[in-house]
Amino acid sequence: MGGAAPLAEKDPGEEEVHGPFRRCIVTRAVLPKEAMIRFVVGPDGMVVPDLAARLPGRGMWLSARAAVLEQACSRRLFARAAKAEVRVPEGLGAQIVAGLERRIADTLGLARRAGRAVCGFVKARDWVMTGRAGLVVTARDGAAEGRRKLLAGASVPVVAPLDAVALGAVFGREQVVHVALAPGRLAQAVAVESARLAGMRGETASEGAVSDATDDRDGAG
Predict the structure, then answer these.
(1) Looking at residues 116-128, what average pLDDT do you find?
(2) Alpha helix locations (H) across 114-171?
(3) Rounded to the nearest 5 degrees, what angle is found at the Cα of 103, between the Cα atoms of 164 and 162?
(4) Which domains does the chain have, with CATH numbers?
(5) Are 124 and 178 in contact (CB under 8 A)?
(6) Where in the numbering of this chain does the YlxR domain appear (predicted)?
(7) Within a 10 A sphere around the Cβ of 6, how many other Cβ atoms?
(8) What does the pLDDT average to over 69-84?
(9) Could you give the dihedral angle defined by the CA atoms of residues 21, 135, 161 and 141, in that order, rounded to the nearest 10 degrees?
(10) What percent of the chain has pLDDT over 90?
(11) Does the CA dihedral 49-53-54-60 come out positive or negative?
(12) How does residue 17 score in pLDDT terms, banded at 50, 70 and 90?
C-alpha cells in the first residue's frame, strides 16, 4: 500500500484537542490556532506551509516561532507527524515570512479600500486622538520617537510588521511610516498575522523591531 500518509486522518493531537486550539508537534503546547502555523504534505512529498489553514491533507501544527521550526526540521518531526517520508524545502522559514508579509499587505489593502485605514502622521494621529484607531501600524524602519509622538500616551496596540517601502506600496506612495486602522475584523487580522510574523522572524515583541531611522517620510498625510 506504500508509505503515504492517509489524507483523511485527523491532525496530530486532534483526538485530545478540539475547537480553536491545536498541539504543537515540537513543544507539545496547546495553543490557539491563530498563534500557530499549519503545514501539510503535498502530493510530491514536500512540506508546505498552510498559512490560511485551509489546504486539504493531514495537518501538522507548529508554534509560530523560528526556533520551533528549526527544531521540527532538524529532528525530522514533520516525517514523524506525517507518518511518512517527507521533504522539507530549503528556505522554509523565509518562505513563511514572505507569505505572512503578503497576507498583512493584502489585509491592509482591504482596509484601505474599505475606508478602514489611513496613512500619514497627521491622519493617523487624528484617528488615535479621536478614538477611531483600533490598531496602529508603523514601519519597521521607522523611528521609535515618531511612534511615541503619534501615540502621545494613547492606549492603542502597535505593530511594525513591514518596512516603509512595503507600507507605501499598499497606499500608493513611495514610503509610508504611520498607519491607523479602525477597530474590527481587519485590524484584528493584521494584529494576529503581525504576531505570527514576529515569531517567525525570531523577535520577542509582537510589534517587531523599530529602529532609530527618521520618521518623517510619509509627510503630513
Answers:
(1) 97
(2) 121-129, 144-151, 164-171
(3) 20
(4) 21-89 (3.30.1230.10), 93-200 (3.30.1330.30)
(5) yes
(6) 22-87
(7) 10
(8) 96
(9) -160
(10) 81
(11) positive
(12) low
| Residues 119, 137: Cα–Cα separation, whole Å | 9
For residue 186, which amino acid is it?
Answer: L
To 10 degrees, the CA torsion angle through 197, 200, 204, 206? 10
Q: Could you tell me which of 47, 80, 49 has the C-alpha nearest to residue 64?
A: 49
Backbone angles phi, psi at 110, to 5 degrees: -60, -45
Amino acid at 178: H
Residue appearing with cell numbers 495537518: 59
Confidence of residue 19 (pLDDT cuts 50, 70, 90): confident
Closest CA relative to residue 33, chosen from 59, 57, 7, 15:
59
Residue 24 pLDDT greater than 50, yes or no = yes
Any bridge partners for residue 34, and if so which?
A: none
